[in-house]
Amino acid sequence: MITENPIQAGLSSELTLLVAPEHLASRWGSGSPEVLATPQMIGLMEQAAVRAVDRLLPAGQCTVGSRIDVRHVAATPLGHHVTARATLEKVEGRLLTFRVTAEDSAGVVGEGVHERTIIDMARFIARTAARAASTNGTRAG
């Protein structure tokens, strides 16, 4: 029996965030203004992409972020809502390419492309452990 791959272009998800003090650029060290921090916007975009596909993967698999190319084009003030959307545009083997956007009540505040890679968790954890062991607790620097 042939089963269709549930990970197909067109899958999408969105998340909305009420911008609170802990989301501000001034708190994240990514600027002085009391507006949504770029890292917070990007994190919301990534979460939307995860929600779009990870629930459809077989047990033991998930996705990890592998690339993000985003422009933060407008500021969202404290107390306003921002909604991130991720739409799967392309599936190339294990590589998934999403169009990501963020909007508030005034319009688009961010847009770009986000790539995620489907991984096997057991293999990923084993490789990560081997990498940690090879460094013997030392850090480059």
CATH superfamily: Hotdog Thioesterase
Q: Which class in CATH terms?
A: Alpha Beta
Q: How many alpha or pi helices? A: 3
Overall 3D shape: flat
Spatial strand order of the main sheet: 1-3-4-5-2
CATH-derived topology: Thiol Ester Dehydrase, Chain A
> How many strands, what sense, and barrel or not for the largest sheet?
5 strands, antiparallel
Mean pLDDT, to the nearest integer, reads 93
Cα Rg: 18 Å
CATH architecture: Roll
Number of domains: 1
What are the low-pLDDT stretches, counting only 5+ consecutive residues below 50? none
Secondary structural class: alpha+beta
Structural description of this entry:
It contains three helices and five strands. The protein is α+β, with helices and mostly antiparallel strands and 141 residues long. The protein has one domain: Hotdog Thioesterase (Thiol Ester Dehydrase, Chain A), CATH 3.10.129. The chain has a five-stranded antiparallel sheet with strand order 1-3-4-5-2. The longest helix is centred in the N-terminal third of the chain and has 16 residues, at 38-53. It is flat.
Features:
single chain, 141 residues, alpha+beta, Thiol Ester Dehydrase, Chain A, five-stranded antiparallel sheet, 5 strands, 39% strand
Q: Brief description of this entry?
A:
The chain is an alpha+beta fold and 141 residues long. It contains three helices and five strands, in the order βααββββα.
